[in-house]
Amino acid sequence: MVELDSLSFSYEREPVLRDLSFRIPQGETVVLAGANGSGKSTLLALLTGIYTPSGGRLRVGDIYSPGREDRLRSAVGLLLQDAELQILGATVREDLLLGCGGEPAGSRRWSDLARSFGLERLLDAPVQTLSGGQKRKLCLAATLLKDPSLLLFDEPFSGLDYPAVRELRCILAENRAAGITQVVAAHDLEPVLDLADSLILLCNGRLAESGPPAGVLDRAAEHGVRPPCSWRLQGEIRPWD
């Protein structure tokens, strides 16, 4: 589904990502972790076609980069850490309509998504009146209208309160059950690791570790990533609540 082959990227000759190679099978939920500056957000930008690799290549399905970044931007959904940068409409209804191109044929889909995300009663609400969690759900609903083959989350739990974190976890679990391939970039592993099929650790732009979470966590702290409390205390990954 997703394959990186010796992928590298530089900003003005300053290396940010170096020689990354790994695969993500169809339908897996992957947590991408690393300290600040490790290259997580840059990698997400490459996967969604915002940037072009400086070296190597990546593949999402049958789409390759370098070469078809335009197709990546259509096929991959990216949820930004700051939801306000992603909302285009003045109201919830308008933003969802923009997500389906304003076409009447998409009306059933956007209304169904609004209902499933608990946004139905807010359709005519100005977007600036929404809570942080509601804005993030609106962005996710609008992104899902594209039927993305790959869904990327950049620090999705940042700034959310407890109820909003629980709601977002339910959405991630539902997406996983539906077979949607997901990559969740996160500093804090606590609220998401029990939902992950695999864990990828970046360190200074390089692939430090990858594999099933239980096989990676013992070395996470060496790369600036704090293991969950349940792992440090009991050596197990427990559901977050």
Summarize the structure.
Helix content is 30%, strand content 26%.
3D structure, described in words:
The chain has 241 residues and is α/β, with parallel strands linked by helices. It has one domain: 3-Layer(aba) Sandwich (Rossmann fold). It is 30% helix and 26% strand. It is built from eight helices and ten strands. It has a six-stranded mixed β-sheet, sandwiched between helices. The chain has a four-stranded antiparallel β-sheet with strand order 2-1-4-5. Helix 5 packs parallel to helix 6. The mean pLDDT is 91.
Percent of residues in helices comes to 25-40%
Q: What is the average per-residue confidence, as pLDDT, rounded to a whole number?
A: 91
Question: Could you list the spans in which at least 5 consecutive residues all have pLDDT below 50?
Answer: none
Apparent shape: globular
Coarse structural class: alpha/beta
Please identify the top-level CATH class: Alpha Beta
SSE topology sketch:
Elements: E1 2-11, E2 14-24, E3 29-33, H1 40-47, E4 55-60, E5 63-65, H2 69-75, E6 76-79, H3 92-99, H4 107-116, H5 132-144, E7 150-154, H6 162-177, E8 181-186, E9 198-203, E10 206-211, H7 213-216, H8 229-234
Supply database-style keywords.
Rossmann fold; 6-stranded mixed sheet; alpha/beta; globular; single chain
